[in-house]
Write a structure and sequence with these properties.
The protein is mainly beta and about 150 residues long. It has a single domain, classed as Immunoglobulin-like (Sandwich). It is built from two helices and eleven strands. The strands form four sheets. Strands 1-8-7-4 form a four-stranded mixed sheet, with no helix packed on it. A hairpin with a 7-residue loop joins strand 7 and strand 8. The longest helix has 10 residues. The relative contact order is 0.21.
Length: about 150
């Protein structure tokens, strides 16, 4: 069972020492894999995939830090609405185990960048329509709308 890109050396180890010889040991891929970026306030979803193993598979975060607002369910679905951007990507380790006895376990490090939401200026007071009244009860905004309508 492997999760996406792993080192050639790791593949060689798996070929020389088949799963059944690990007696439930954890195999850890050393390279981190970058996931698609997320954005604060926007729903995020990513489904992890495996090759091999005996169903059912169980997924968990084995280390590091998921972005706040993002969770990993036991079926391998990473989802949620990120709440906190960060300049550097969040780094975490995902582990999957199967139903073999003893279970086969594989862990992979992942990187997930969360971008900030677009910047907007907030808190600017809304002008009251009375502010636009000019001399002798003429409503400036109504006058502008009439002029625009005559184009």
């Amino acid at each position: 069972m492997k999760i996406s890109r792993t080192r050639i050396a790791m593949i060689a180890v798996l070929w020389v020492l088949p799963w059944r010889n690990f007696s439930g040991s954890l195999i850890y891929a050393q390279d981190s894999v970058s996931l698609p970026n997320g954005k604060v306030g926007t729903a995020y979803q990513y489904q992890f995939q495996t090759e091999g193993g005996l169903a059912p598979l169980v997924w968990k975060v084995a280390g590091g830090e998921l972005p706040p607002g993002i969770n990993l369910d036991p079926a391998g679905k990473l989802s949620g609405v990120p709440t906190t951007p960060r300049r550097d990507p969040y780094r975490f380790v995902v582990e999957v185990s199967d139903a073999s006895q003893p279970p086969q376990r594989f862990a992979q490090s992942f990187l997930l960048s969360i971008q900030a939401a677009g910047a907007v200026i907030v808190g600017v007071p809304q002008m009251d329509r009375d502010y636009y009244k000019i001399g002798v009860g003429i409503d400036f905004m109504s006058l502008v709308q009439k002029i625009r309508g005559n184009r």
